[in-house]
Amino acid sequence: MDSTPVDNEASSTENKTQNLLSYPRRLTGEEIENINQRCKEESFWYRALPLSLGSMLITQGLISKGIIKTASLNTVVVVGAVAFFVGKMLYIEKCTQSFRSRLVPFGPEQYRKHSPTDDEGKANPQMKKTDTSVS
Fold this sequence. Notes:
Helix content is 60%, strand content 0%.
């Protein structure tokens, strides 16, 4: 058998470069589960619970001052439940960003549109608008 030496460093560097350039990147089931779990916890603690408790306290205060006259404990519970779900829904964009940050290997600067400028950032005078009118 003929054994040829293999350069492991070169092949690992090549694999890393290939992984960075491959788009879209696939997430493993474990990564998806971790992101989902983190999103559930953060949406509960940072949006749903504070919004729910705050709205329930405000509703109870309005009831006790007599501003809301035909209200009961059921009203406070319903307001709290609605605020809880609204808080969960408000966190969806943050969770979507978490998934996108794992999928996209580069930052948003890659997706900026390039304008016809030279190196100093000034407009290129050679790029003139052409006359496209029909005679």
